Amino acid sequence: MGKVTVEALVEGGKASAGPPIGPALGPTGVNLYQVVQKINELTAKFKGLKVPVKITVNTDDKSFDVEVGVPPTSALILSKLAKEKATGNPRKEITGDISMRDIIEIAKMKSSQLTARSLAGAVRTVLGTCVSMGVTVEGKDPRIVQKEVLEGKYNGLLSEE
């Protein structure tokens, strides 16, 4: 029969055999318990966030492969701020304030999807998202922090991470 691929959005670490995974994979005959366990294991670090997963099942031998995507940068920033959504007017309203360590952590999570060649470049990309969301970084405008990253002010913090 071949391969069946199912893409779903699941909450990190909380996938279940119910919708959307169960109904999609049930007809393939694969062990749903093992699939759900694998998804939860791979998405545990994204607790509380919706995570894209791609499940490929070989219908002949019932083997499966799970690929986990990374939530959008904006969702990762909002989760660090414990907010549900950003301001609708980032030039005038501040959504929240985030630490540089959190920015670096997000940059590392997203590094495989970003085109930046270095951690500093990935950090600057995440800071750009902060600009559009109205998020300050340790009380500063993210554009100022981007310049400070370029000037090497955070090299110590970037190298220890």
Describe, in plain words, how this protein is organized in 3D:
The protein is an alpha+beta fold. The chain folds into two domains: 3-68, Ribosomal protein L11/L12, N-terminal domain (Ribosomal protein L11, N-terminal domain), CATH 3.30.1550.10; 73-160, Arc Repressor Mutant, subunit A (Orthogonal Bundle), CATH 1.10.10.250. It has seven helices and five strands, in the order E-H-H-E-E-H-E-H-H-E-H-H. The strands form two sheets. A three-stranded antiparallel β-sheet has the order 1-2-3. Helix 4 crosses helix 5. The protein is elongated. 25% of the residues are buried.
Give the strand tally.
Answer: 5
Low-pLDDT stretches: none
The CATH architecture of the largest domain would be Orthogonal Bundle
Strand order of the largest sheet: 1-2-3
Summed up, what is this model?
The protein has seven helices and five strands. The chain has helices at residues 21-25, 32-43, 73-81, 100-110, 119-133, 142-151, 155-160, and strands at residues 3-11, 50-58, 63-68, 96-98, 135-137.
Which key features would you list for this structure?
161 residues; alpha+beta; Ribosomal protein L11, N-terminal domain; Arc Repressor Mutant, subunit A; 3-stranded antiparallel sheet; two-stranded parallel sheet; 7 helices; elongated
Strand-helix topology:
Layout (H helix, E strand, L loop, with lengths): L2 E9 L9 H5 L6 H12 L6 E9 L4 E6 L4 H9 L14 E3 L1 H11 L8 H15 L1 E3 L4 H10 L3 H6 L1
Parallel strand pairs: 4-5
Antiparallel strand pairs: 1-2, 2-3
Helix pairs in contact: 3-4, 4-5, 5-6
